[in-house]
Amino acid sequence: MRQDLFTSPEGQWTPVSPQLATARGLIGTACGLVLVLVSVGAWLPLRDSMGGWAPVLWLPAALGLGLIAWIWWWAPRNRRSWGYAEAEDDFVVRGGIMFRRLVVVPYGRMQFVDVQSGPVARAFGFGTVTLHTASTSTAAEIPGVPLDEAKRLRDRLTDLGEGHGAGV
Asked: What is the value of pTM for the model shown?
């Protein structure tokens, strides 16, 4: 029987907030609309002077609309790829669609737990929880954690780190 490398041997996967996809979609839409406005702003004064080259001015608009379509396709898929599991001796984080990543952080190796939430994330009620160890390659980041859960994780992981002899 073939076992998936990106599943947790222990514990149940906890997904991140669906609001992560919505927030990313809205940010991508704002960026795409800026490109559309750049096209319109360049086209209005230059349309007559450019002659046959005027359609080139719509290239940023096409890129902007493509970005909007792509971000709304990508964001929900990416959100579903993120998750974490609390095992007995370690914390497991997974993420990624094409380039998948699984990070197993032993509780005793955690140095500190960082919770961040920018203005957009706070408006949607989530934050990013980052687990730091002495090695930067084993740091684990979980975007889209609901704020109440982020607080619970911060407190629990800090206690577990101290309990396993690392002192977070």
From this structure: 0.83
